[in-house]
Amino acid sequence: MKSMSFAGKIHLVKEFLYSRNAVYETLRAQRRQVFGLQVAEGAQEKGRLAEILRLAEERRIPVRRVPRLALDKIQPAHQGVILEAGAYPYVTLADILDLADCCGEPPFLLLLDTLNDPQNFGTLLRTAEAVGVHGVLLPLARTVEVTPAVVNASSGASEHLLIARMNLSQAIDELREAGVWTIGLDQAPESRLPSEVSWMGGGLALVVGSEGAGIRPLVKSKCDFLVRLPMQGKIESLNAAVAGSVALYLAYLARQQPITHG
Fold first, then answer.
1. Which residues touch 190 (CB under 8 Å, ≥6 apart)?
2. What is the pTM of this model?
3. What does residue 149 show for φ and ψ, rounded to 5 degrees?
4. What does pLDDT average to over the chain?
5. Which domains are delineated in the chain?
6. Cα–Cα dist 38/64, whole Å
7. How far apart are CA 213 and CA 178, in angstroms?
8. CB contact burial 214-233 (16+ within 10 A = b; e otherwise)
9. Sheet harboring 81-86: ordered strands across?
10. How confident is the model over 135-161, as pLDDT tens digits?
11. At residue 11, what are phi and psi to the nearest 5 degrees?
12. 95-143 pLDDT, tens per residue?
């Protein structure tokens, strides 16, 4: 995905982002307000930590060396570094469509319907960023948000993605008006197999439901069609992160193929 500079509003809420990849990508993305960096005393300043300190120096971010125990009290999985930053800068659907337009690409979106597990959310964000998704949509309620745990689970991919929160049913209507097809990932027997679907030729929005209930009925009814992943093993289904990641890669690979006519 081509880079895009997004100047979000200044957020005064302070969060403690942790783990070296998450902190590094947050500093590299430059989308959050940053208040300071805490580094464990005695930590070897090489590799990724050295890169973090270089970025902090370039941005004139205050750096404090503190006892490792002090970091443990904030977050045990800190990996020797914690970044004091503002809240995640959510955007609008219009911002996401503008990014696709700036890239000269058909829109490619991921819609997550009431996903609740931070690890699954982070995994899907990491996959979405890897395959060039222009943006992610979340519902307004009953869903996981971009928390420090999610930033960590995504290895910082969240910081390079545009994420919006809005009514998903209304979002699908707006996407349809923008020429974007919506495909719901659902294991119902009546859902189509990937081989039966044309993934190319215009914008695409993939909907992934919650870990237990899947896609809500109203949102499902708004989808242009449903797709299920073929299963040959003894288990009944994959979890949301794995299934969604597979579907994202199927869509990504299809979008790389030239469109043929005739």
1. 226
2. 0.89
3. -65, -35
4. 90
5. 14-86 (3.30.1330.30), 93-256 (3.40.1280.10)
6. 5
7. 29
8. bbbeebbebbeebbbbeeee
9. 14-18, 81-86, 34-40, 63-66
10. 999 999 888 999 999 999 999 999 999
11. -110, 130
12. 999 999 999 999 999 999 989 999 999 999 999 999 999 999 999 988 8
What is the length of the chain?
A: 262
Distance, in Å, from the CA atom of 194 to the CA atom of 229, rounded to the nearest integer, reads 7
